[in-house]
Amino acid sequence: MLISKYRTLKSKVDLPTYLGVTLDPELRFSKHIEQTTNKALGKLNILRKLCGTSWGSRPQTLKSTFCTVIRPVLEYATPIWTPASISVKRKLDSVQHRAAKIIIEQRVFDKWKHSTRLKRSSTLQLDSEFRKELNLDHSSLEFLQEPLIPKKKNPPKNTCFELELLQPCSKKEDPVTLRQKGLETIAILSQDNFAIAYTDGSSDRSLSNGGAGIILLLPDGNNYKHKINTGIIASNFTSELVAIREALLLYQQNPHVIDSTEGLVIFSDSKSAIEAIRNGETNISCDIITLLEQLHNKRKSYILQWIPAHVNIEGNECADSLAKEARDIEHKCTTITLDDANAVAKHRIMNHTFKKPLVTEFDCPRIITSTIARLRTEHLKGMKIHPDKTRSYVQCKHCPDLQLTPNHILECPTVATKLLKMGMVPLRDSLWELLYSPDAPRIAEAVIKTFDGI
């Protein structure tokens, strides 16, 4: 009795509103989110006015309209009502769900089947995909010659890691100013009886054929140039680390150089590589730290100094040229770091297996994008869903004995003829994959011409 009376009194209380946020006594924000939902639902009519089933603005325009007009309403005062319960916040999700259906004109969202989801998330399935993309057989694991758990090692205490120039600088500064500050830093660190090394690494976006270049300058005027291929698969980061390791080896393996100098200064344009050595994060970094400890035991000093790249500093440009030349060396390094192998496999797999272009990415008329959405979701005009969850479709006007099912649409001989005239070879097994490729608009166009819309 008391509870019902309390609820009745609470419902009659006027809830205060401050700066557009309605506060309830228990701070559940249910009333505020309800008001926000109703306000956003009213603004959805703007999207409905801009498009219909087969006409209207392009999906990208509708998406921009949603992000500009409706989304700010949903996200207003987010830091305040974030503690609200999930069930309350789901009301806002329903608005976004409706907006997405209006934008791409689809009534049912494409969902993975349970078997597909389990298969794709399987560790064995991913391992199989990795081997396929890297062309690695089971016997080829010898290429990954590093432990699965990276080593962790701290550099000697007297190691000097410098991630900034002696004068403060910013990336926004013009190259001439950066070059001048870089040369000043180099000049100051080169005054004592130290050997100077410039290192650089080179790779490409596909992480193939890495190279490292090193130039070692001695106080007596002699210099050594060295280049090495860092692997069939090697990132720019790995190549930078290998270049620093090779510079230390080059310095350490020459007794005359060690005896005639007080230490070594390495100039690298990679802050991430210097930080990785300082933190001992990778296996190559640990190898470098071991070399630094050996130099420390010989009472040699060493400095790892960052310098700006591509500002026409002679030593850095020379090392960069050597690194690019090293990528073409025939005797390639056969070892692959675990991080690089994972990165390449993930990049190749994600590009064609997991990444599927959204309907909003196609710059084509509304009727084309809505047809693509209907084909992907298998939700067509005239389709009926029965109580037992089975579906029935209208008859195909070109094949009277067959229903116009999603599978039949792509296999219909008339559609195949249209695709051939458009210059596409209608391979039966690949048509569903093409719905998620840049050729999807051409398939939709052929379907529209054949069936006058679906």
Automatic annotation (TrEMBL):
GO terms for molecular function: nucleic acid binding; RNA-DNA hybrid ribonuclease activity. Pfam families: RNase_H. This is RNase H domain-containing protein. It comes from Trichonephila clavipes (Golden silk orbweaver). CDD domains: Rnase_HI_RT_non_LTR (cd09276). Belongs to the RNase H family. GO terms for biological process: DNA replication, removal of RNA primer. Residues 191-328 form the RNase H type-1 domain.
